[in-house]
Design a protein that fits this description.
358 residues, alpha/beta, 8-stranded parallel β-sheet, 44% helix
Length: 358
């Protein structure tokens, strides 16, 4: 196993960690077996969250029974923005994990301005710093899905580690937050290396991608900015794939990385490039905007709930009620102009049936 410095935390974390999102839905026996096998193979970092159901409880039992608490760096995350609830959540985490300290406490999913304003104004930042000074947590981290807000958060200098989504379908952090984290010495932990399940073997096949889970893991591990990658390892076979990736990622040359991106990029069905040649629509539908959200929904729908929530929110804000796809009358004016021959009226019909609004 390779170990890497996690930024200014100075923790030496294994390049492969465990994302325990699904531990609430596996048996205690399975959770314990995976934790044991992970330890035997040199993995030393596990991440969970207060919002992951029974995950913390399963991990707490496993670590206690196997007497492995001090062999892992443990992190959990809190999404509550109410100060009192945040405090209660922290106590619940320690109790669930059967430990008296956390290696990293993350403020979970700070991805909108409203959310960040609440974190800043509700006393949460002072509280986490107080927890650190008392030794109840060792380090403070933040997870975000938004590079704009993420930049502002990271520049405060309060955080020591950032948990960021990164995979061949989501490269946004690569040119923005990764270099900023490096400049400010924040450790980067990659979440969603398989696109929140989109690039898992089965789903990848359904989507018509030829990319494998192992390639996606190697892709994330081979970024020079990344300290550790935390796929959801809730089955022994996933652990084996991930271990194979970490032991062979060195083969992932720049050329191979580009090839992995291309496998995903060109296979999105009816992918709208946003060129706008199809405009204007006589019915007032902002076609590229609708298709932008529809393409994202096709990738994440039914798989990644946080992305679905975000798509619904942004789609409702950006596309007015007067421009929703159910206004399409199939006049065909747009299809003649689309250089990629997208079946726009058909896509409008499908989007109207499936894209959710608030
Ligand atoms: S087919 Fe539908 S989306 Fe295209 S221009 Fe006509 S009304 Fe607008
Ligand atoms: S012309 Fe085609 S690819 Fe371009 S924005 Fe319209 S639908 Fe999308």
């Amino acid at each position: 196993m390779e170990y890497r410095r996690l930024g200014k935390t100075e923790l030496q974390v294994s390049a492969l960690g465990i994302g325990a999102l699904k531990y609430g839905s596996v048996t205690q026996e399975t959770a314990s077996e995976i934790v044991k096998a992970a330890h035997q193979n040199g993995i030393n970092y596990i991440d969970t969250a207060r919002g992951y159901g029974e995950s913390e409880i399963r991990l707490g039992h496993a670590l206690k029974k196997l007497r492995l608490r001090d062999r892992f760096y443990l992190s959990s995350k809190i999404i509550n923005r109410d100060f009192k609830q945040f405090q209660q959540d922290f106590e619940t985490i320690l109790s669930n994990l059967q430990t008296d300290y956390l290696d990293i406490l993350f403020i979970h999913d700070v991805s909108t301005r409203e959310n960040w304003d609440k974190v800043r104004s509700n006393g949460i930042l002072d509280y986490v710093q107080e927890l650190r000074s008392k030794g109840r947590i060792r380090h403070i981290g933040v997870s975000t899905h938004d590079c704009g807000i993420g930049e502002e958060i990271i520049r405060t200098g309060i955080f020591e580690a950032a948990m960021l989504a990164y995979n061949p379908t989501n490269l946004e952090a690569e040119d923005t937050l990764f270099p900023l984290c490096a400049a400010m010495d924040l450790g980067v932990i990659v979440m969603k290396p398989l696109g929140g399940g989109v690039l898992s073997e089965e789903r990848s096949r359904q989507m018509g991608f030829s990319v494998t889970a192992e390639e996606c893991l190697k892709f994330a591990m081979s970024s020079p900015y990344v300290s550790t990658v935390i796929p959801g390892l809730d089955k022994a076979e996933y652990l084996n794939i991930a271990l194979h990736a970490v032991n062979s990622y060195i083969d992932m040359t720049e050329e191979n990385r580009r090839a992995v991106i291309a496998k995903v990029d060109i296979k999105v069905k009816n992918y709208c490039r946003g060129c706008g040649y199809c405009r204007p629509c006589p019915q007032g539908i902002p076609i590229p905007d609708v298709l932008k959200y529809w393409n994202r929904w096709e990738v994440f729908g039914g798989v990644d709930w946080s992305q679905m929530h975000r798509i619904t929110e942004e789609y409702t804000k950006e596309v007015p009620d007067s421009g929703t796809p159910d206004h399409c009358i199939s006049c065909g004016a747009c299809t003649k102009k689309c250089p990629f021959n997208l079946p726009i009226p058909k896509l409008m019909e499908t989007a109207a049936k499936n894209l959710r609004r608030y």
